[in-house]
Design brief:
Elements (H helix, E strand, L loop, with lengths): L2 H10 L3 E8 L4 E6 L3 E15 L2 E6 L3 E4 L4 E18 L2
Antiparallel strand pairs: 1-6, 2-6, 3-4, 3-5, 3-6
């Protein structure tokens, strides 16, 4: 799917505030928690997340969600990362 198709799909699922972010190589997002469910769709590059000691690599074309209250870290891959991020909840 392309960017617009993903946005339409996510909106149909009830996600809002959909934004496309581009971050450089190895950009780090330290430990944090969201008070709402978040969805992330990787358009380019990769994102490496860590939750409860488990590392996961999310690659181009993949999507993942963090339920509200999930504590995690994230880091862009060596080629950076472009992703759609949206929220669902209060």
């Amino acid at each position: 799917m392309n960017e617009q198709q993903w946005i339409e799909k996510l909106e149909a699922e009830g996600y809002r505030d959909l934004t496309v972010f581009t971050n450089g190589a190895d950009a780090v997002f330290g430990e944090h928690t969201h008070h709402v469910t978040t969805v992330h769709v990787i358009l380019k590059g990769a994102l490496i997340t860590q939750e409860n000691g488990q590392e996961r690599v999310i690659k181009q074309g993949e999507r993942f969600e963090f339920p509200a209250g999930t504590t995690h870290t994230a880091k862009c891959g060596p080629d950076g990362c472009t992703m759609i991020v949206g929220i669902k909840g209060k």
